[in-house]
Amino acid sequence: MALAALCVIALNGLDPGPLRSADERAGDMLWRWSPASGRAEEQEHRFVIVDIDEASLARLGSWPWPRERLAELSRRLAALGAGTQVYDVVLADARPGDAALAAEFSRHQVVLAEILSLDPETTAAFGQLQGALTTGSPACGAPLPQASGYIGNAPALASAAGLSAGHITPRIARDGAVRHLPALICFGGRAYPALGLAALIKSAGAEPAWSLQPGSAWFDPAWRLTHSGLPGVVVPMDDNGDVRLSYLLPRRAFASISAAEVLEGRAPAGLFRGAWVLIGATAFGIGDAVPTPLGGAVGGVEVHAQFISALLDARLPWTPRSALLLVAVLGLAAAGALLLAAGWRRLPVLGLPLVGALLGLLIFAAHAWLLLGANLWVGWSSPAAFSLLAGVLL
Predict the structure, then answer these.
(1) Dist CA 101 CA 394 (whole Å)
(2) What is the pLDDT of residues 257-294, one digit of tens each?
């Protein structure tokens, strides 16, 4: 039993990648097989995705579109009753028509995207950053990640009255999937919020002033991001300053329409009334397609849609501060069950490895229940590996 525990501890210490990968891949499976993925009533009606897709480019011309066309899109969305317009598109280059587009944006609630580089070797700076948190917000230190470069929007757009912005920089896992998103990223001593947080602040008409506190209770996350003007909204963060994304809703839960249909006046009546609008691109060559637990090549706008939906419903998963203790308790419970099984003389020789495998499945079931029922990410691979290895050695 001690040898099995030492092997699992050594594996976590030398190369935790395989066990963490098993945790994440199993989590992907849980998101795809969750009960919510099969319920038709699980629909997200608070925002609509406007997709700059292949059909839009075929009918309206290649990207980048003239600024006048983007201004027309914003004008039509507002006329259809849309609320906050969130653009998952960075308009970094100065182009003719920037002034007209900025004037149109200033008439509505608009949040633009910007990119902050977390790669120390990427130090380029394009466009203009905007949307930094106000003085008195979290200082740029641990656990907030530090950026080395950025891609902002054209100065004429960034300086438009009332315009805000949020970063769209994800954390890319070893397998290329997006499962985490930094809530805040620092650059030049100032913190910049994620696109979803910037959109929430813009819609609420609140100041961009978040508060960051470390968790204190056993089941608290490592860090908690709150806002005095948004009671009940808590953004759980890990020690890297990242938010674990929830993919509870299936892709079909999000209402989506082609940008061409909006510009051509063919959008269904009432679709946008009172809803946020997320404008993103999935067309080949301009879309930021990324792997997620729900698909191999999902448009980046869907990642932000999942984040915003989970943020509004308070179901962002987090790893509790007592996660290691919970894992140890699961391991001790498995050890006790194996010792009881080992004392049963009628159990065949192959019975103990089978008992170890069964206990591993029960540990995975506990992990799934905590994730889908309580939004807690504890991890299952380490105690399950211990259970199976101990059964074999016994």
Answers:
(1) 71
(2) 999 999 999 999 889 998 999 999 888 777 677 888 88
Q: Which residues share a beta bridge with 110?
A: 85
Token representation of residue 73 = 């899109």
Around Cβ 272, how many Cβ atoms within 10 Å?
25
Give the angle subtended at the CA of 107 by the CAs of 229 and 257, to the nearest 5°. 90
Report DSSP letters for 137-183, one per residue: S--S-TTS-B-SEEE-B-HHHHTSTT-EEEE--PEE-TTS-EEEEES
Residue 143 has which token pair? 């656990």
The 10s digit of each residue's pLDDT in 131-183 is: 999 877 788 888 999 999 999 999 999 888 788 999 999 999 888 899 999 99
Which residue blocks in 268-350 are alpha helix, DSSP H? Answer: 300-312, 323-342
Helix axes 17-33, 351-374, angle to 10 degrees: 60
The three-class DSSP label of residue 90 is coil
Return the sign of the alpha-carbon dihedral for residues 364, 368, 370, 376: positive
- Residue in 199, 212, 328 with CA at minimum distance from that of residue 276: 199
* DSSP-based helix, strand, coil % in the chain, nearest 5: 40, 20, 40
